[in-house]
Amino acid sequence: MGAPDEKLLSLNTATVRQQWQLPDIIAGCARHSIRGIAPWRDQVAAAGLKEVAARIRDSELTVTGYCRGGMFPATDGASRRAARDDNKRAVDEALTLSAQCLVLVVGGLPKNREGRIDSKDLLGAREMVRDGIGELLEYARPAGMPLAIEPLHPMYAADRACVNTMEHANDLCDELGAGVGIAVDAYHVWWDPHLKREIERAAGGASGKGTSRLLAYHICDWLVPTTDLLTDRGMMGDGVIDLPLLRSWMDGGGYRGMHEVEIFSANNWWKRDPDEVLATCKVRHRDCS
Length: 289
Known about the structure:
The chain is α/β, with parallel strands linked by helices. It has one domain: Alpha-Beta Barrel (TIM Barrel). 40% of the residues lie in helices and 12% in strands. It has helices at residues 22-31, 41-47, 49-58, 77-96, 122-143, 166-176, 186-189, 195-202, 243-252, 274-288; strands spanning 9-12, 36-38, 62-63, 66-70, 102-105, 147-149, 180-185, 214-219, 259-261. A nine-stranded parallel sheet has the order 3-2-1-9-8-7-6-5-4.
């Protein structure tokens, strides 16, 4: 298939978060003609929500997603209520930024107030996730902020996300109804033998004529060997993911949103000149994804 439209490139700000503060990243995107951006909440808080919203608006950037809400499971009611309130704030922030969705990293096994895993009840954790998303939907749906469940690789089931497949995310969408969809992250789902089927399901069936749940699409690459499960992602084309094939499935399902580059790379890309990183993202998006 042909190269993707360069106008579809978006930058998740984690890709250069070690080199630049958020105002610098916004300016860098504008300078490199990258038209989309996906900021993280801690970066927004550091720079100021209203200031960031104004900078993004003035730079005419599309906020393809806001990172992140979620982290629903906890061993006590007070912590679950705190997560509920924090997620509502995340919805409000996403609305201020005119984000296309709030990305949910749902959380893993329940933790105690000190942040330590205090349970082995994976089924119970998944019930807390379902209930937490359902409760948040009651707040987000009337406000018009879509919630995007991001399935994470099974290696994160204990500590970051106990929703680990597109199938599980689709099941949750079936159960919870309108207002919730899926953020498809190549790094986390590329290995799934049912991925094409579940992308079609999220798109509204093989015909793509139903209501699409495909809210976001994140790209990077899986390196072999991988030296760190969190901070050793590869630039597109440097690893083993067939990104053009995955894009063809997303396109075939009617996804017309942007392609968000999200690279955590402590020993490589986070050490490079950030202008070089952004320029490389543009080339690799064109040639390798």
